[in-house]
Every structure is written in structure tokens, then in C-alpha cells.
Amino acid sequence: MSGCYPISLHLAGRRCLVVGGGSVAERKVLSLLACDARVTVVSPRVCPGLRKMAAAGRIDWHCGEYHNTVLDGIFLVIAATDQDAVNRLVSKECLERNLLVNVVDDPPHGNFYVPAVMRRGPLQIAVSTGGHSPLLARKIKEELARRYGPEYGEFAVWLGEIRTRLLENISDPEKRHRILASLVDDQVLLLLAEGRLTQAKERVEQCLSS
User: Which fold has domain 115-147?
Assistant: First the structure.
């Protein structure tokens, strides 16, 4: 199997489709909503969680069987039914339209995999086995979650604010790069690993002042 090219997609405002109405489909819907996607679900029946989202206007629910007309204007599709024949039909018709499509539990029939993702605010660490072992990816993600606490997310936001200030005040790109590269050294990472966020920030401030 050829290698995969890892990317992060901007889905805000994009129309995404989930085919299926069970608990797996619900998890996929939640992950898309977390990226501010506009989500449509197609299924004759949906689980209570999806029904509540539809009632609250968070998603559009097309109550019925899948038909390729629902693909019009869609950017990304996830096939998450419990019927292999339906999932593969969805995949086939998406691929014919050059749409992004993932088939849950049957990755080779889509054109992208969904990695296991550990999130700490804007910090995201994705783990993928290229569809070979989602369980292994999930276990590694859980290990990463124990290793990287919430302080990493807060630190990433703070560094982003510093980067914005540097972009606004330093026109020389090489100088900016040198400063940014000096801010996160081994000592800063060690302090974060020990949960000493305040001290990590203080060290960065020292680097800036020098």
C-alpha cells in the first residue's frame, strides 16, 4: 500500500455529509461539528444524540435511504452505516465525483483515513497507521494524552500571541525566524513536561528580552 500524505483540513462552513444514524455516525458528526462544518446526516433512523442535534438545528437530517442526489454541493463524506453494500456504494459514487470520502471500518474503499487525534486546544497530535490498525493508533493516542496535559494547549495559544506580535513588529523574516526558533528550547519543553507552565512562560519572556 502506498504512503499517505498527512494534511489538516479547514472545514469551517464546508458542507459535509455523514451517511448513517448510529453511535459511530454520531461520533463522526461531533468531530465535524468541532471543526465548524455544516453537517448533513442521511439515514432512515438516527440515534437519540443525532435526533437531539437535528431538533436543535445543529445538523440537517434527511430522513430516508441514501441516494447520490444528496452529494450535490458536498465537500466531504463519511460512510458510517452498518451495511457494507451501502457504504461501498457511497464510496463508489463519491470517488466518481472526486469527493473526499472515508468508509468507517473499511478504509481501503475511501480516499482518506481519519487518524486518532489527541487535542489540547489548538495543539493537535494525529496518529495514523494508514488504516492497518486503528486500535494501535487509539492506544498511542491515549498514551500521548497522558503525556501532554492541558498546559500544552494554553502554552500554544500564548505562543501564537507572541508570534502575532513579532509578525507585526519585525519585518525581517530571517530575524523573526531566529527569535521564534529560540523561544522553545529543551529547557522550556522540560518545564512543560513537569507541568510548570508559569516557569516555561518566564523562560520564553527571558529569551525575548535578551
Answer: Double Stranded RNA Binding Domain (3.30.160)
